[in-house]
Amino acid sequence: MDYVRIGENIMKKDSICQVNIINQQNVTTAMNYLEKEKVQKSLRILKKFTDNKQINIIFYLLAVEELCVCDIACLLDLSMASASHHLRKLANENILDTRREGKIIYYFIKDEEIRDFFNQLG
Question: What Cα–Cα distance (Å) separates residue 35 from each residue in 1, 32, 41?
Answer without folding.
Answer: 39, 5, 10
